[in-house]
Amino acid sequence: MTTEEKIGQLCFPTGWEMYTKIDDHTVEPSKQFVDRMQAMPPGGFWATLRADPWTQKTLKTGLNPELSAKALNELQRHVVEETRLGIPLFFAEESMHGHMAIGTTVFPTGLGQGSTWNPELINKMAEVIAFETRLQGAHIGYGPILDLAREPRWSR
Predict the structure, then answer these.
(1) CA-atom Rg of the chain in angstroms
(2) Are 96 and 154 a contacting pair, CB within 8 Å?
(3) CA distances from residue 2 to 10, 37, 89, 124 in whole angstroms, order as listed
Protein backbone atom coordinates (compact mmCIF):
# COMPACT_ATOMS: atom_id res chain seq x y z
CA MET A 1 0.00 0.00 0.00
CA THR A 2 1.14 3.49 -0.73
CA THR A 3 1.13 6.13 1.98
CA GLU A 4 -1.94 7.72 0.34
CA GLU A 5 -3.78 4.36 0.34
CA LYS A 6 -2.98 3.84 4.02
CA ILE A 7 -4.25 7.32 4.85
CA GLY A 8 -7.37 6.67 2.77
CA GLN A 9 -8.14 3.54 4.80
CA LEU A 10 -8.34 5.71 7.92
CA CYS A 11 -10.93 8.05 6.40
CA PHE A 12 -14.72 7.74 6.70
CA PRO A 13 -16.23 10.64 4.73
CA THR A 14 -19.97 11.21 4.46
CA GLY A 15 -21.56 8.89 1.95
CA TRP A 16 -25.02 10.16 1.03
CA GLU A 17 -23.73 11.54 -2.29
CA MET A 18 -22.02 8.28 -3.27
CA TYR A 19 -24.99 6.81 -5.12
CA THR A 20 -27.30 7.96 -7.89
CA LYS A 21 -30.92 6.89 -7.71
CA ILE A 22 -32.03 6.28 -11.30
CA ASP A 23 -35.61 5.27 -10.49
CA ASP A 24 -37.52 3.38 -7.77
CA HIS A 25 -35.76 0.12 -8.73
CA THR A 26 -32.29 1.15 -9.89
CA VAL A 27 -29.30 2.73 -8.18
CA GLU A 28 -25.68 3.03 -9.24
CA PRO A 29 -22.42 4.51 -7.95
CA SER A 30 -22.29 8.28 -8.47
CA LYS A 31 -19.57 10.04 -10.44
CA GLN A 32 -18.35 11.50 -7.14
CA PHE A 33 -17.96 7.95 -5.77
CA VAL A 34 -16.08 6.70 -8.84
CA ASP A 35 -13.77 9.73 -8.74
CA ARG A 36 -13.14 9.26 -5.00
CA MET A 37 -12.27 5.60 -5.51
CA GLN A 38 -9.71 6.51 -8.18
CA ALA A 39 -8.14 9.32 -6.14
CA MET A 40 -7.88 7.83 -2.63
CA PRO A 41 -10.26 5.01 -1.62
CA PRO A 42 -11.44 5.48 1.99
CA GLY A 43 -11.86 2.71 4.53
CA GLY A 44 -15.59 3.31 4.46
CA PHE A 45 -18.37 5.84 4.45
CA TRP A 46 -20.52 7.33 7.17
CA ALA A 47 -24.25 8.05 6.80
CA THR A 48 -24.57 6.72 3.26
CA LEU A 49 -28.23 5.80 3.83
CA ARG A 50 -29.09 8.71 6.13
CA ALA A 51 -32.26 10.61 5.22
CA ASP A 52 -32.96 13.99 6.81
CA PRO A 53 -32.86 17.72 5.97
CA TRP A 54 -29.07 17.81 6.36
CA THR A 55 -28.52 15.19 3.63
CA GLN A 56 -31.47 16.46 1.57
CA LYS A 57 -32.60 12.85 1.14
CA THR A 58 -36.38 12.50 1.25
CA LEU A 59 -38.89 9.74 0.54
CA LYS A 60 -38.54 10.73 -3.12
CA THR A 61 -34.76 11.14 -3.37
CA GLY A 62 -33.66 8.64 -0.70
CA LEU A 63 -33.60 4.86 -0.73
CA ASN A 64 -36.09 2.37 0.69
CA PRO A 65 -34.58 -0.63 2.54
CA GLU A 66 -34.45 -2.85 -0.56
CA LEU A 67 -32.83 -0.17 -2.71
CA SER A 68 -30.45 0.68 0.14
CA ALA A 69 -29.14 -2.89 0.15
CA LYS A 70 -28.76 -2.77 -3.64
CA ALA A 71 -26.89 0.54 -3.43
CA LEU A 72 -24.37 -0.68 -0.88
CA ASN A 73 -23.88 -3.91 -2.84
CA GLU A 74 -23.18 -1.87 -5.99
CA LEU A 75 -20.70 0.33 -4.15
CA GLN A 76 -18.94 -2.75 -2.74
CA ARG A 77 -18.88 -4.42 -6.15
CA HIS A 78 -17.27 -1.34 -7.70
CA VAL A 79 -14.61 -1.11 -4.98
CA VAL A 80 -13.69 -4.80 -5.11
CA GLU A 81 -13.63 -5.00 -8.91
CA GLU A 82 -12.44 -1.54 -9.96
CA THR A 83 -9.83 -0.42 -7.42
CA ARG A 84 -6.19 -1.46 -7.32
CA LEU A 85 -6.35 -3.26 -3.96
CA GLY A 86 -10.02 -4.30 -3.98
CA ILE A 87 -10.45 -3.73 -0.23
CA PRO A 88 -14.16 -3.80 0.72
CA LEU A 89 -15.65 -0.76 2.43
CA PHE A 90 -17.13 -0.43 5.89
CA PHE A 91 -20.46 1.40 6.03
CA ALA A 92 -21.27 3.20 9.28
CA GLU A 93 -24.73 4.60 10.04
CA GLU A 94 -26.35 6.76 12.72
CA SER A 95 -28.36 4.47 15.03
CA MET A 96 -28.97 6.46 18.21
CA HIS A 97 -32.61 5.46 18.55
CA GLY A 98 -33.20 3.65 15.29
CA HIS A 99 -31.32 3.46 12.01
CA MET A 100 -31.58 6.99 10.60
CA ALA A 101 -32.81 5.87 7.18
CA ILE A 102 -36.04 5.53 5.23
CA GLY A 103 -38.24 2.56 6.16
CA THR A 104 -36.73 1.86 9.57
CA THR A 105 -38.22 1.98 13.06
CA VAL A 106 -37.84 5.15 15.15
CA PHE A 107 -37.62 4.57 18.90
CA PRO A 108 -37.65 7.05 21.80
CA THR A 109 -34.41 8.91 22.49
CA GLY A 110 -32.07 7.85 25.28
CA LEU A 111 -33.92 9.90 27.87
CA GLY A 112 -37.20 8.18 26.99
CA GLN A 113 -35.54 4.78 26.93
CA GLY A 114 -34.05 5.30 30.38
CA SER A 115 -37.42 6.41 31.71
CA THR A 116 -38.83 2.93 31.08
CA TRP A 117 -36.54 1.39 33.71
CA ASN A 118 -36.77 -1.75 31.56
CA PRO A 119 -33.33 -3.02 30.42
CA GLU A 120 -34.90 -6.03 28.69
CA LEU A 121 -37.04 -3.74 26.53
CA ILE A 122 -34.00 -1.63 25.64
CA ASN A 123 -32.13 -4.82 24.70
CA LYS A 124 -34.95 -5.80 22.33
CA MET A 125 -34.92 -2.30 20.85
CA ALA A 126 -31.16 -2.54 20.25
CA GLU A 127 -31.63 -5.91 18.52
CA VAL A 128 -34.20 -4.40 16.15
CA ILE A 129 -31.92 -1.45 15.39
CA ALA A 130 -28.97 -3.77 14.70
CA PHE A 131 -31.10 -6.04 12.51
CA GLU A 132 -32.55 -3.19 10.44
CA THR A 133 -29.17 -1.50 10.04
CA ARG A 134 -27.38 -4.68 8.96
CA LEU A 135 -30.26 -5.72 6.69
CA GLN A 136 -29.54 -2.66 4.55
CA GLY A 137 -25.84 -3.47 4.37
CA ALA A 138 -24.26 -1.32 7.08
CA HIS A 139 -21.53 -2.77 9.30
CA ILE A 140 -21.28 -0.17 12.06
CA GLY A 141 -24.06 1.53 14.00
CA TYR A 142 -23.20 4.71 15.90
CA GLY A 143 -25.25 4.50 19.06
CA PRO A 144 -26.43 4.45 21.72
CA ILE A 145 -24.99 7.36 23.65
CA LEU A 146 -24.44 7.13 27.37
CA ASP A 147 -24.66 10.55 28.95
CA LEU A 148 -26.15 12.35 31.91
CA ALA A 149 -29.36 14.09 30.87
CA ARG A 150 -29.24 17.58 32.31
CA GLU A 151 -31.44 19.02 29.57
CA PRO A 152 -34.66 17.01 28.97
CA ARG A 153 -35.04 18.34 25.42
CA TRP A 154 -31.65 17.02 24.32
CA SER A 155 -32.38 14.41 21.66
CA ARG A 156 -29.27 12.33 22.08
Answers:
(1) 17
(2) no
(3) 13, 14, 18, 44
Taking the C-alpha atoms of residue 156 and residue 152, their distance in angstroms, rounded to an integer, is 10
Question: How many C-beta atoms surround the C-beta of residue 112 within 10 A?
Answer: 12
pLDDT one-digit tens code per residue, 102-134: 999 999 988 888 889 999 999 999 999 999 999
- Determine the number of helices (DSSP H) and then strands (DSSP E) in the chain: 5, 5
- pTM listed for this prediction: 0.90
Sort residue 88 into left (φ over 0), alpha (ψ -120 to 50) or beta: beta
Domains and CATH numbers, the chain: 3-142 (3.20.20.300)
User: Does a cis peptide bond (omega within 30 degrees of 0) precede residue 144?
Assistant: yes
